[in-house]
């Protein structure tokens, strides 16, 4: 096992849909590992549903995947796609402000990092890479408000924009927004 202090920084690359689809199994493996942890506690059925969603999301306009590799192993990822003007998250319990709702938005759908690579600034690098050079004026995401991720997004300047329950039986998430470009 590599000593954490001796661990080299992962390399980050931005992948377009064809390349992102080519690594779907690696993305699913990463997702399975990260989301098996509390508070998510997701199992094989959740991973299968994620894999189906991921394949569909790679078909959306504006899709891009920021992938972090340590050697040949995918250790982190963040991906985005365009939420077109007038669209908002399925299961919204609140309506966003009219200026956000009326605009195209960069939807940050997932951010996942393997445990040994956390706490090193990789999450921020992945989000910045995924959102760099986007044509949209706003970035939006959903996050469970009971997680560390929520606190991190707040620290990075993301603002609350309503509540969303994406699927029946899922926890209520906080929708958050950030103007682009992110600095």
From TrEMBL:
Q: Which InterPro entries does this one have?
A: Acyl_CoA_acyltransferase, GNAT_dom
GO MF term (any one):
acyltransferase activity, transferring groups other than amino-acyl groups
Which residue ranges does the record assign to the N-acetyltransferase domain?
Answer: 10-181
In terms of Pfam families, this protein maps to: Acetyltransf_1
Q: Which domain of life is it from?
A: Bacteria
Q: What SUPFAM superfamilies does the record tag this protein with?
A: Acyl-CoA N-acyltransferases (Nat)
Q: What is this protein called?
A: N-acetyltransferase
The taxonomy runs: Bacteria, Bacillati, Actinomycetota, Actinomycetes, Micromonosporales
């Amino acid at each position: 096992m590599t000593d954490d202090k001796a661990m080299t920084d992962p390399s980050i690359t931005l992948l377009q849909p064809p390349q992102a689809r080519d690594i779907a199994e690696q993305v699913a493996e990463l997702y399975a590992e990260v989301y098996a942890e509390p508070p998510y506690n997701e199992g094989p059925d959740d991973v299968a549903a994620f894999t189906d969603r991921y394949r569909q999301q790679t078909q959306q306009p504006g899709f891009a995947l920021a992938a972090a590799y340590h050697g040949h192993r995918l250790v982190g990822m963040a991906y985005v796609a365009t939420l077109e003007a007038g669209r908002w998250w399925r299961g919204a319990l609140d309506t966003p402000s009219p200026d956000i709702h009326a605009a195209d938005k960069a939807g940050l759908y997932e951010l996942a990092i393997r445990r040994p690579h956390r706490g090193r600034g990789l999450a921020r690098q992945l989000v910045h890479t995924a959102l760099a050079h986007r044509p949209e004026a706003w970035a939006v995401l959903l996050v469970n408000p009971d997680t560390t991720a929520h606190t991190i997004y707040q620290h990075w300047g993301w603002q609350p924009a309503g509540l969303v329950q994406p699927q029946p039986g899922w926890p209520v998430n906080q929708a958050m927004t950030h103007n682009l470009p992110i600095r």
